[in-house]
Specification:
268 residues; seven-stranded mixed beta sheet; alpha/beta
Length: 268
């Protein structure tokens, strides 16, 4: 069975996402060379992780997401920021009367969309000097490093195996499965839609310290292990997960290096 989007893709993950994901580096905002003018559209904004980082650099920041709980969490986190707007909307339903934008961003979200269709729509939503930025990032976990760190590394392989024991060997995603993972080949899709890549931003990952609750949240932040997928076994799974984490680190603290981040900037 081929995968199709459905509303349960991230159901129940919103309250865990902001805590469970490693923050985008604050220095990323300066890399976009924004000057306070123009509007930002963050497509698949989740709880506003990237939107809120960039909101201070634009006149208005608009975040859209298909999950109403993600939008509610983004609104909560944006309290006091008058130039942010949040819309519960699928990318395929753009432009939705939202107007023109100087910058449109996809941060770990483009692969969940009808990519050729969405790329073509977004191209038509860009202002004359507008650009589309595609973030290549992994924020739920870090990467291995030979440099000694202060605390033990999170047991990511064991966590993956534990999830498989409960949910089966094929990756879950909403009501269906993704046996081959999410699709790639974004560059060709952007080019076919009439974009040219003008710049790649690269930023090295930094060392972060996380605790047991952070790592539990990171598991629940994933489409492949959202809380509802475990059904009645969710409490039992969480007990096993926490026991695994405490066995790995008696202090409950973990160190790891965040994955490197790359951003492709595209213009029509």
């Amino acid at each position: 069975m081929s995968w199709e989007w459905d509303p349960t893709l991230y159901a129940g993950s919103a309250e865990y996402y902001a805590r469970g994901r490693i923050d985008y580096p604050a220095a990323l905002a300066a890399e976009f060379e924004l000057d306070g003018a123009g509007r930002l559209l963050d497509v698949g904004c989740g709880p506003g992780s990237l939107t809120l980082l960039l909101a201070g650099e634009v006149e208005e920041a608009v975040g859209i997401d298909a999950d109403p709980d993600m939008i509610a969490e983004a609104e909560r986190r944006a309290a006091g920021l008058p130039n942010t707007r949040w819309v519960c909307l699928r990318a395929e339903d753009l432009p939705a009367g939202l107007g023109k934008f100087r910058l449109v961003t996809f941060a770990q979200s483009f692969h969940w969309t009808d990519r050729p269709r969405v790329a073509a729509i977004v191209r038509g939503m860009l202002a004359a000097d507008g650009a589309c930025a595609h973030l290549h990032a992994t924020t739920h976990k870090g990467v291995a490093t030979a440099v000694p760190l202060e605390h033990p590394s999170p047991p990511h392989a064991e966590i993956t195996e534990l999830v498989r024991e409960y949910l089966g060997p094929v990756r879950r995603a909403g009501r269906s499965r993704l046996p081959h993972g999410t699709p790639g080949g974004e560059s060709e899709i952007y080019r076919t839609a009439g974009f040219t890549m003008v710049r790649r931003i690269e930023m090295a990952g930094r060392v972060v310290t996380r605790d047991v609750d952070d790592l539990v949240a990171s598991v629940y932040s994933l489409s492949s292990s959202t809380p509802h997928l475990f059904g009645e076994l969710q409490p039992e799974f969480e007990v096993d997960l926490r026991e695994l984490l405490w066995r790995t680190s008696s202090s409950g603290l973990f160190s790891e290096r965040a994955a490197d981040l790359a951003v492709d900037v595209w213009r029509p």
